[in-house]
Protein 1
Amino acid sequence: MTSVQSSAAVALYCSGKCPGSVVLRALDVAVALREAPVWLASGFHSSVERECLALLLKGTVRLTVCPARSAVGMRVPAAWKPAIEVGRLTIRSAIDEGFEVDRDLGDPKPTARRPTATLAEHRNRFVASISDGVLILHASPRGKLDRLAGELAAASKPLWILEDPANQHLIERGARPVTPATIDSIWAEA
């Protein structure tokens, strides 16, 4: 992705179930990222990711929204349209781009219109593949995002985690902790 956008691309993830202490810090991170010289990619599907997107749209950071479905025929929310019009937001779908996926997950249907857990896993792997590094706001222990984080760390993908006691399990496995005050370190490393 960096060859196209000429700046670091960072995947942004947050588990659906998220402790309150992480939610508040995650929103502070989103505010800190609004003017960042990076390209943020995410499904923006979990409630925290959606709240972050709303804050990010108020800034100048470039965004890629990756739905867990085909983007063909997808209704674009009105809040996204100004960012799309100025080239700050793109929509990319792993399904539409023929992303080669882990066969254990099964093949997604090329016309998938509704997100599923399997399509979300495909999407999350796609987002990681188009990114130079990964920022996780929270990954529930032993959850799907936690497993993906382990795979990415094993593959030496730069991995940052929001510093919070609820994220200690990923810090212990090598993810570098960040705070809203130190978030700018990610694009220096990505």
Protein 2
Amino acid sequence: MSEAMLMQSRARRQAQPAYAGFWLRLAAYLIDFMLLSVVELVLALGYLLMNQDLKALLVVKPDTYSTLLVVVYLVANVAPVWSAVGWAYFAVLESSPLQGTVGKHALGLYVTDVQGDPIGFRRASLRYWLKAVSDLTLAVGWIMAAFTPRKQALHDLLAGTLVLRRVQDSTPVPAAASLAEYWDGSRWVSSSSITGEV
């Protein structure tokens, strides 16, 4: 990370963090849910259209039993793919420089650890799988985000993460600073380190 980014990160930590409340987080989740539902529906329809046995079963015997059998077979074979797509979507985007999913980014939210630093892929994956614990508590784990001091849901408490709102910064960022560095997939690289400038 460059010196300018470290200074911005420190300044953000020193300022009072703006925690994302329950309703903002719910709205972001609904955006992500709609986006993932479209992707998963396309995958399911593609699987259904490519599987000749299922198509034949629906065409030859269009009764309730056949339809139920197709639905059970489809869910049993597509559900693991849906689960993997959801995990990859949340874990990759929350551990990326974006620090959040499409829904979070659209509403100005981002995910950090409890110190305010970006989370890695491992912690983002842990956070995703711990959402099952929030689900198993009959959604009480999710509702906790409305009542905890730092607006953390149960999976955030267990994973050691926060969801914060981006606050408009009144200090402009010089254009040269933002163009002089980029994310190479694992770290921030400045263009001067590539060209050998000092």
Protein 3
Amino acid sequence: MSKPATESTLCKVNRILGISDSYEAPAKMMELLLGDSRNRRMIFHVFLEQFEYDLSYEWFYNYFQDEHADRKNNKQDFTPVCVSNLISEMLNCKPRDDSYTIIEEPAAGTGSTIIAHWHKSFRSCRFPWDYRPDDYLYRLTELSSKTVPFLLFNVMIRGMNAIVIHGNSLTKEIEAAYWIYNEENNPMGFSDIYIIPKERYDFITGDVQMKNENKRKKLTLNLDDLLDF
């Protein structure tokens, strides 16, 4: 069941972002994510404290549903937490020994469904430090420019590895793409963000799995291919 949205929750998000109106939130969030990494991590810690360190659900569901859902043009509604949890329980996406598991979400929204999967995988470990972020690679597509910054935030604050595509899943048109990477493979850490150059878009729309000695090396090589290092 979704956690209730109250006016104080809306004010809380706006206050942390330093804005007076929620329409400013997407641009401000994107500025934060692409800006100074130390400031970004500080804001992440503020959000964690304000939301009681509970990463099991998508914090912005009601905030976004009420303020930014584009029902008229994009028929956009966001997946309730209870539905995301149900989908996660129905899927059995376990990591493989020789590689990482790719989780595809062609209409990711703010990330409710993949958060449910991440939380299920995390809590399946006996100890928190047994969880390995590099066991999974999330490939997420979202059409709305208002939604993408919050999707990126949700992936990064949970330390996931992901390719996030701002584009159309049906036509394969891409506005922008981002590589989200937990370089230290730290289950309690944050991920960094890299902008994927346009000349690498053909790579992210194809099969991203690669054959190498171990899954960690595979993710590193994917990073090299995506960013043309």
Protein 4
Amino acid sequence: MVLGIDDTERLFSISGAVLALVIAVYLIPTRLTKNSWITDTAKAKGTTCPSGYTYHASQCTKQVLTHPSYWLPQFLVTLIIGLVMLAFAYRRKRAGVAFCALLLGLSTSSFIGLLSFLFLLLGGWLIVRAFRLQKFGDPTFKGSNARAREMAKAKKEGRALDPTPTTGNKSGSKSGSKSGSKSGSKSGAKSTTRPSTPAPSKRYTPKQQPRKR
């Protein structure tokens, strides 16, 4: 399950892929069909700005007119990665989804700002859950912390710890006891209802007389 994703992770992964596709579609009418203005920033030296920039709110800014060809590579990258991420999420591939999410977070930061942080958060969340699942057997924060405390306590006491998580042991013992009781009851029922072997017949059978020639 480390390489795969559960239902919750799959839901968030599909949502992230859909968000990337929505961003790509948004670029079509706003950036790809006409020239558009964007705000470019530069670092200020005190209160002095480079040529063409104006000083405002502790930074240097200027308006830049962009051609649709400027946005075409970003549109294609966002669209392709979003489709690939959706395919990985559908097939429950953790590594593929995490890689696409991190790539989207880095490639879209220049034009969607803080919204790109959601993709970075999704990719990091999937990686952290994979680490917890591999090390502690539980991807959740609460379950992995409980398992870590059990491991630390066992190490301090110098005893071996069951490699399976506590939750798994409980479920396993319950299922084992249930299956054992069911199998025992079934075998008991079979043994009680099994028919006994017939008793030998007490009727006397006379010996046959030899035939006269």
